[in-house]
Design a protein that fits this description.
A six-stranded mixed beta sheet has the order 14-13-12-15-16-17, sandwiched between helices. Helix 12 links the parallel strand 16 and strand 17. Helix 1 crosses helix 4 and helix 8 runs parallel beside helix 13. The chain has 867 residues and is of the alpha+beta class. The protein is built from 16 helices and 46 strands. It is 17% helix and 29% strand. Keywords: Membrane, Transmembrane, Transmembrane helix. It comes from Eptatretus burgeri (Inshore hagfish). InterPro entries: CLCA_N, CLCR, VWF_A, vWFA_dom_sf. One of its GO terms (cellular component) is plasma membrane. This is Chloride channel accessory 1.
Length: 867
């Protein structure tokens, strides 16, 4: 598949790209062969292409998990073993290599499908029925269909197919299964009228135009290359178990802001989350590195305590980061002499101008380094260590209301292959309690987790606070049920086995005479091998902003591949200067969110305050009756429309299956990112976000209802100042900035000058009956403006087919044959309908004749009487 796809990709990109090297990550359950190398940071979660068992509700259809805007790379391509191994499925989706290149367009270049997903047909501005596709030269036919009385289009029971012989060569993002298709649609072949995802999300740009702006092609758009072979090199990587080493800063600056004790508490949480069989070492560094512990295999409580007792109690001297890393490389090599794929977790709050001196040795070692920058003074080049080793990067602040040090260590530990071993963080919060104050909260243990549930409490004062944990049955655990470590100032309640599903209430009371910083962290693990836990993945749309564009925060809530919808998702973004911004992330199909109810919750981040590092933390709450698990898939290849061997037509459209999640809680921290603000930059630089859900429906003849989600003053925050509506009879006029709208403000019922706050549903009525003549199609577009008159991008295009046209016979033709649209008829009642219709018609005719005769007689006898 990959070899043929490389060749097909080379043709489709006009000799600009092919697959040079492919790394195949072998499951550790497979027997190891001599040519398998140890992986180096590569993981299933980070793979470009995932091959996994099919979900019974989602089938074997290939798809791409794509969450970003137009031109933004997706998360992964998903194939099932059945798709790879069963040749019969190629009759449903096309040749595997062609499907892969289609999905690669989604994944790599942020392209969207050009075929119709929810709707298959539309009426062109010429009055012809057209199948939604990029290239109008693709010939097609359809079976005798029924007409939908609401839209005037063929209804969902209509079937269509493409001719086997085609003259057009595009487009890969539409009908890649046709043998003639060997290219992407460009500006010359692109159909801007088609109501497909590509036009909607990419503002009517062709797939080729979007591709040419990617980093892959932007510097060589006009330079096809002739190569002798497109055969990829294959490298096989084995999922061996890595060893770990903590590399911890103990320089004098760690004495500030209680950093050393917070570090010890975080390392304790990290070690308690490690699994039996893991091997961990600990190295500290200031101006001199020191091995606190050689590799220790986690076997029981004693091995964990041995590691904890090796942690440092003092901090002094300066900071030499490279010395700590070089010593850590020797520690991880104690396992088998090979450091490839082993993982270092490096935490520092200091600067080291010599950090780049060890880059060469790090690359050679092929280790993975996860970095944690503590405080605002941590070296600005620290993240380069993560970048060059394929590691994760985190930022922890000194904010007393933040639990970010513990969150960073737990998040670095959660980068595991096996879902059953990953700790699921249910709660993480920290606060400053005055004397006699309480920290109260509720965390939900749902049916997908519950094994090895742990409540961890930490504090800063000498004496521990009072702690009460109450389970769903009303049983309360007190401080005597916790394992208290006074040196670490932590208390841990470890509940083995499956725990009660439901609401667990916690209360922490500061019984000291002074204020105390108290934090609580709750984690759990998967308990039933047959039930995959609900997980949350969070990230920003980049590791740094691109001024003056806003950034986007994402939270994906899933049960494996099934999206979880209807959850309440709150994001907190904290910068290194102590500022915290809260954002409610939405899955509403508006603003930064492409599709409603796909389990991807998003929001624009525009509240940039100062240059520096930021971290992202997300809190998710699911509620019984509101949050549900859906079977909806991502963007994917079209199911080939055709007949089965027995002559029956196959219809694959179906509504997603929904099941309740019950009450659940999740907390997840994402990687850090950088904000850079140019000196003297304007504060108000963000226009309202582009409206992507403009919808038009004709309520009665000549009256159109427009609905959309209100944007904000800054992207999707605040409140826009006004709207501008444009109505045209052709697509070129709509896209032409100089062309005027054929509708005036007098024809609009609703106030375009007073927008609602961001996120609210907007609605106006447009009277189109005053237009000079009603065309076959009318097009609508919307713009929003903020208080300083910054203009949004043009919205998605909405259209209506005026009722006087769509209720009449439209030219429903294909390129090969004319197709008759028939009304829906119940064959069993057909004779009765005919008899009733004839009788009723005769009755009406008789009434008319009687009325005419009566009127004639009246006019003869009484000329002055009006009847």
């Amino acid at each position: 598949m990959m070899t043929k796809a490389s060749q097909y990709l080379y043709k489709a990109t006009n000799q600009r790209a092919f697959f040079r090297q492919i790394n195949i990550l072998i499951p550790k359950s497979w027997s190891r062969k001599t040519d398998y190398l140890n992986r180096r940071g590569e993981s299933y979660d980070q793979a470009d292409i995932r091959i996994d068992i099919a979900d019974p509700l989602m089938g074997d259809g290939p798809y791409t998990f794509q969450f970003g805007q137009c031109g933004v790379q997706g998360e992964f391509i998903h194939f099932t073993p059945e798709f790879i191994l069963n040749d019969d499925l190629q009759s449903y989706f096309g040749a595997r290599e062609r499907v892969l290149v289609h999905e690669w367009g989604h994944y790599r270049w942020g392209l969207f499908d050009e075929y119709g997903v929810d709707k298959k047909f539309y009426i062109s501005s010429k009055g012809n029925l057209e199948l939604i596709r990029c290239n109008l030269d693709i010939a097609w036919n359809m079976k005798t269909c029924r007409k939908d009385n609401e839209t005037g289009l063929p209804d969902h029971s209509c079937y269509y197919w493409y001719d086997n012989v085609q003259t057009s060569s595009s487009s890969v993002m539409s009908q890649q299964y046709l043998t003639s298709i060997i290219s992407f649609c460009d500006a010359t072949s692109h159909n801007t009228e088609a109501p497909n995802f590509q036009n909607r999300f990419c503002n009517h740009k062709s797939t080729w135009e979007v591709m040419m702006k990617s980093e892959d092609f932007i510097n060589n758009t006009n330079s096809p290359a002739t190569v002798t072979s497109t055969l990829p090199t294959f490298i096989y990587l084995y999922t061996s178990k890595p060893v770990f080493c903590l590399v911890l800063d103990t320089s004098a600056s760690m004495n500030k802001e209680n950093r050393l004790n917070r570090l010890r508490q975080a390392v304790e949480a990290y070690i308690m989350q490690m699994q039996s069989g893991d091997k961990i070492g600990i190295v500290t560094f200031n101006s001199i590195p020191h091995i606190q512990s050689n590799l220790v295999e986690i076997r029981n409580k004693n091995s964990r305590l041995k590691l904890l007792h090796s942690l440092p109690n003092t901090a002094e001297r300066g900071t030499v980061i490279c010395s700590g890393i070089q010593l850590a490389l020797k520690v991880v090599a104690q396992d088998d002499g090979d450091t490839r794929g082993d993982e270092l977790v490096l935490m520092t709050d200091g600067k080291d101008e010599r950090i780049s001196m060890c880059f060469k040795a790090i690359r050679k070692s092929q280790v993975v380094i996860h970095t944690i920058a503590l405080g605002s003074s941590a070296d600005k080049n620290l993240e380069k260590l993560s970048t060059i080793t394929n590691g994760k990067r985190f930022f922890a602040s000194d904010n007393v209301q933040s639990n970010s040090v513990i969150d960073s260590f737990i998040s670095s530990a959660s980068q595991r292959e096996e879902v059953k071993l990953k700790p699921i963080q249910l709660e993480s919060t920290s606060t400053m309690l005055v004397m006699n104050d309480w920290l109260n909260g509720t965390v939900y243990v749902d049916r997908t987790v519950g094994t090895n549930t742990a409540f961890s409490i930490s504090w800063r004062n000498q004496e521990p606070p009072n702690i009460h944990i109450t389970n769903p049955k009303g049983i309360t655990y007190g401080i005597n049920d916790f394992v208290v470590d006074e040196s670490f100032k932590t208390a841990r309640l470890q509940l083995q086995g499956q725990r009660e599903v439901g609401a667990w209430h916690y209360s922490v009371h500061n019984n000291n005479t002074s204020e105390d910083q108290v934090s609580i962290t709750v984690t759990s693990h998967r308990w039933d091998p047959s039930i995959v836990p609900i997980t949350v993945d969070v990230h920003m749309d980049g590791d740094k902003n691109s001024w003056p564009q806003p950034m986007i925060a994402y939270a994906t809530v899933r049960q494996k591949y099934r999206p979880v919808i209807g959850a309440k998702v709150l994001a907190q973004i904290e910068d290194e200067h102590g500022s915290v911004v809260s954002l409610e992330l939405l899955d509403n199909g508006a603003g930064s969110d492409l599709l409603k109810d796909d389990g991807i919750y998003t929001r624009y981040f525009t509240n940039f305050s100062k240059t520096g590092r930021c971290n992202l933390k997300v809190f998710v709450k699911g509620e019984e009756g509101f949050s549900k698990i859906s079977s909806r898939r991502g963007f994917g290849s079209e199911f080939i429309p055709s007949k089965e061997k027995d002559g029956e037509w196959r219809n694959v459209s179906s509504a997603p299956t929904l099941t309740s999640t019950g009450d659940f809680s999740r907390t997840q921290s994402g990687e850090s990112f950088m904000i850079s603000i140019p000196p003297g930059a304007s504060i108000d630089i963000f226009p309202p976000n582009r409206i992507i859900d403009l919808n038009a429906n004709e309520r009665k003849v000549g009256l159109v209802e427009l609905t959309w989600t209100a944007p904000g003053d800054d992207a999707d925050s605040g409140q826009a100042s006004r709207y501008r509506l444009k109505v045209s009879t052709t697509m070129p006029e709509l896209l032409d900035v100089s062309a005027k709208s054929i509708i005036t403000k007098e024809d609009i019922e609703g106030n375009l000058q007073s927008p609602s706050p961001a996120g609210y549903l907007e609605r106006v009525l447009v009277n189109i009956s005053k237009a000079e003549s009603l065309p076959e199609v009318m097009y609508f577009a919307m713009w929003a403006y903020d208080q300083t008159n910054l203009e949004s991008e043009m919205s998605n295009m909405a259209r209506v087919y005026p009722l006087s046209i769509s209720k009449a016979e439209v030219n429903f033709t294909s390129r090969r044959e004319r197709t008759v649209i028939v009304p829906k008829i119940d064959k069993n009642k057909f004779p009765l309908k005919i008899i009733f219709g004839i009788a009723f018609g005769c009755f009406i005719l008789a009434c008319i004749l009687v009325g005419l005769v009566t009127a004639f007689v009246c006019r003869k006898s009484k000329p002055s009487t009006v009847v």
